[in-house]
From TrEMBL, chain A:
It comes from the Bacteria. The lineage of its organism: Bacteria, Bacillati, Actinomycetota, Actinomycetes, Propionibacteriales. It comes from Nocardioides szechwanensis. One of its GO terms (cellular component) is ATP-binding cassette (ABC) transporter complex. GO terms for molecular function: peptide transmembrane transporter activity. This is Peptide/nickel transport system substrate-binding protein. The keyword Signal applies.
Automatic annotation (TrEMBL), chain B:
GO terms for cellular component: plasma membrane. It is found in: Cell membrane. PROSITE patterns: ABC_TM1. Belongs to the binding-protein-dependent transport system permease family. Residues 114-321 form the ABC transmembrane type-1 domain. This is Peptide/nickel transport system permease protein. Its main location: membrane. Pfam families: BPD_transp_1, BPD_transp_1_N. CDD domains: TM_PBP2 (cd06261). GO terms for biological process: transmembrane transport.
TrEMBL record, chain C:
GO terms for biological process: transmembrane transport. Residues 1-32 are annotated as: Disordered. Coiled coil: none annotated. The lineage of its organism: Bacteria, Bacillati, Actinomycetota, Actinomycetes, Propionibacteriales. It comes from Nocardioides szechwanensis. This is Peptide/nickel transport system permease protein. InterPro entries: BP-dependent_transpt_permease, MetI-like, MetI-like_sf, OppC_N. It comes from the Bacteria. Belongs to the binding-protein-dependent transport system permease family.
Amino acid sequence: MKRTKSLAVVAAFAMVTLAACGGDGGDGNTEPSGTETFIDPEAGFGKIADAEGPAPEPEGATAGGTITVLIPSDPGPEDLDPTNGWSVLGNSIQQALTNRSLTQFRRNAEGSMELVPDLATDLGRPNEDFTEWTFTIKDNVRWENGDPVTPEEIKYGVERSFDSETFTSGPGQVYSVSNFDCGEGYTGPQDGDCPGITIDGQDITFKMQQAFPDMDFWSTFMAIGPIPLENSDFPEYGRDPLATGPYMIEEFRVNESLTLVKNPEWDPASDPARHQYADKWIFKFDQDQEKTDQILLSDTPESQTTVSNGLGATNVQDLQAALGDNYIQQTGQCVSYRTPDYTKITDINIRKAIAWGYDFKNIQLAGGNIPGLTRIPASAIMPPGMSGRKAYFPDGEQFEYNPEKAKQYLADAGEEGYKLTFIYDDSDPETKAAAEQEKKGYEQAGFTVEMIPYQDDAYALWDDKDSPINKKLNLRAVNWCSDWPSASTMIPPLIETGQPYNTSYFSEQEVDDRIKEIATLPLEDQAAAWGDLDELIGTKYLPMIPTAYRNDLFGAGSKIGGFSGDAAMSAIYYKDLFVKP
Amino acid sequence: MFAYIIKRLLSGVIVVILVSMAVFALFWYGPSSPARPICLAETGNRCTPDRLENYEEQLGYNNNIVDEYGNYAKGIFTGREMPIGNVVIDCDRPCLGFSHRSRALVWDELVERLPATISVAVGGAFLYLALGIPIGVAAARRRGTLGDKLLVSSFLFLSSVPYYLFALLAWLYFTLIWQVPILGSSGYTPITDNPAEWFKGMLLPWLCLGIFGCTQYTRYTRGAMVETLSEDYIRTAKAKGLPPSTVVYRHGLRSALVPVVTVFGIDLGVLLAGTIFTERIFEIQGIGRWGLSAVQAFDLPVVSATALFGAILIVISNLIVDVIYSVLDPRVRLS
Amino acid sequence: MSTPTMGSETLGHLSEEALPGDEAPATKRQVSGKSPLRIAAGRLRQDKVAMVCLTIVVIFGLIAIFAGTIAGWFNVTTTPGNPAEDLNYLNGGMPYKGPPNGSFDPDHPFGIAPKTATDNLATWLYGCRTSMMIATSATILASLLGIVLGLVAGFVGGIVDKIISFVTDLFLTLPFLLMALVIAPILSERFALKPDTYKQMQLLSLIVILAGFGWMGVARLVRGEVLSLREREFILSSQVIGMSTPRIMFKELLPNLVAPIVVAISLMLPAFIAAEAGLAYLGVGITQGSSWGQTILQASSYFEHYPLYLWEPLLGIVVLVLALNLLGDAIRDAVDPKTRR
């Protein structure tokens, strides 16, 4: 029944993308040269620890007006509780407009993303071995009700993110639990105080279980931002969380709309990145794609102040021509993979045959994507722009559809007519059409294919080892976006033994050991080590076939100014938007 | 007459209760536990059996279905206290439950959305009659001629197009492509905020519903009029030298309206279904759209509430129709 | 919007109302020795519009039955096409050959679909088959259910009548669309694990849903007619000579009900065809194989760039529904001579 949640949407739903940083993303390496152009995410943006408010004004910015944001085919977040926020869409809106955290991303005049302070006065001060981080909280930040934001409230926010029963899907379950040192088995405020977080005046100090050099990135998440000590119980708080940013929630209707109005208590002097130009924001979820495109094309007074969170493939050419500069192709750090079952398909030649039998262009076209524009052929596990990424080809050259080569590999394996079994969502015409193309491709490449229609959540099925359907499958998939541009948010969750999103059930002692080992390496060597591991996995095991790197298309009406993409979030950069007079 | 109404009301109540039970049971014995979708959404697909059980307990889905339905039904009349997680929500009567998805009391949201749906339905229903009856009468007076056939089949043609496509294209053309000023800004504004805006925003949805739905009124009015106009008393009236329009409207239409009213009564209930499409396409945050998204998200309390609402609407409108019936046609005696 | 309950339901009311008037002509016809239906058929043959409509319906019926053969003549199939080669995907995604920008393409007379490059003619032919099959089966099922329940309720009367009438009211009160949305996934989930039967089961579940919410009109109609016939001499006399109840119902009553039932059925068919298309928009319906409703849903975003893609299935539905409705009207006029004057 979940028509609106196709596989792609589900993936974007489950994970936030935070991309690009580190400086050395892909330099010195030649990118795999396909015929398609790939807009590289801004590599090399820095960290500005001393950035101060007010934020630099975008050119021509004026105050006033209402901005309407249409969000096609995504039902939006189920709640707005900051601790639960772990979706590209929800986080990009809330972190830009309503909920502040310790640090944040800012887009500078050159268009690169940079990490700047938010509630803290700087980007945090780590000790020598990154096992302790101290932040000083600004004293001029207030909640929408006028109360000051205190370090105690940030501590409470962090403690709250440990609560696995209440915030099971929150990012804290991964990053808080494995990094902050709150003692064995700590599960949130109901277990009392977290001894690893200490407060001294406006200073708050976090003790880590091990070296955690990425704390400044993790601090951009509203999940470890402040939460009021009183009246902040889930789920009520998730309906109308108190705002610290320039806007506060006027009305939130699940799956329908979110209306934001100006927060009078927000002080521009305390915020180095956000603005308060528009009077009002209206986000409309679960919109019809065609309607959204036509609204943007029509240039009516209302559509001139409308923003679209996704452009349909049908109208891309028209929209590009009509919108001009307000048409954005935004690279994200999201990758789609096909994952052959490592326990069933044990011969790497069959996995290679699948890779060569994957009819990339036809599958993407049938799925409503545009090859070369919104989907780029992939090679390595890590997407371009990620620090330490090594450009390599798992089988010597870029995988492209080549049924003869696939047949050859199948013959090498002695498995002509090998049977592939996978699920597909037949309730969505596009995913269904894409699956049919994929089936056709494999069949022409010498496979036999069985497709099982399945409308429920695919990840839940793939995670359920006892399900009779799952037991039949030998080909699965995963779409993954990194949380920040380090392979530590990419390779371990997809490759390590027993991880829930390791849908190939890959398990090799050598790789597991190496993953553990990299964490102990000196910081400056880690990025390159991840790149090497990526290549080792791809060439030696090929447990997952990277099929596409993903781009998003955004658009805005003619009266929207300051419109740009957020390479850090793979989303629209809401902080600079304004309505032209 | 009074006794009849009481009797009808009683059987209506039983019907409504059965409808709500049926919806409840459908979900209960549906493909998976009604707690599962909530569990999946809340846990980001990490819904382990333990957690599922937890949610089932929280939502009361591990109770006996009879007990739980009893609680639900009792809550409507007395209100109840609902423990959700570690908080207890005070759900005053009439308590239709708590939507875990929107984190709001179902009754509050129902009341909030009611005006929008009523606006759509009443306007649409009015146009059904306002367009359907005159066109039907006009066709009947020209029966057998080319005009008659053109009138009937052109409306039939329009209503053969799937309704959602009809409304979608109407919206696209009037709002975006031709940008007709008065039809160009469809959407719901509460009538209490700004009656003019309310009217402007509702006009296109009304027209769509009205034009699409009036076809069968045209047909039934035409059919009934043709029949009535051939009755003896009409011939007598004509023979008396009364003006044709008086004969048609005074004498003819009155009895021809009887079947039309019947259709109308049933339609008022079916209108709820029509509003599902209308509200979705014209972005009206009413009950139809709410019910649709609730069904898709398996939000049982909301689905139950919309089904209950629809059933009550149908029962009441059928009753009203029967009463009007007896007024229009003295031969009908309510008993 | 087009719920199947509407058309037939209203009929039920209508004829209940028109009962006293119906009797006279019926008796006259019996005297002349011709069955009412034969007289009506004779009238129908005189009606040009009705004959045109009948021809259209028959043609669509033939298309539905011989979809595979016709597709074979044109050498087209519903298998997925080759979009990367046939579509200009970096420039709007329209086909290189054939409509909407090119001229007629003899390989694909109706053009090919955007995104998938599947042949439109094949999709249309099989879509016609699906739509016709769903509507016909649902109509047969709904009218059987309605006739049997209506006959029993009307003839047996008493407590049985009360119960059946109550159930009819109950089903009329259930919000059809909400129920369809709830039931459809439950039914299809049951069979997801058996891909070989999944397609049939999906069809079957849609038919069951449509029929399950479409029988009430016929039941009411039949019950009303039976109530008036029950007291007539020929029924009373067959009771006196000791005929069994089922025999009276099916041998004596049913032939007298044929005319109103034919009318009800002829109006039920178009309602079901339209309902399939409406349900497709809400995600209830046929996803295996093609149906007109599904094609319209996918084509609705091409109303500007590739109107032909949208018009093909749309015209199919509109022409068929229009023809069926007009035919239904004509049959009703033929059966009930009063509306013809």
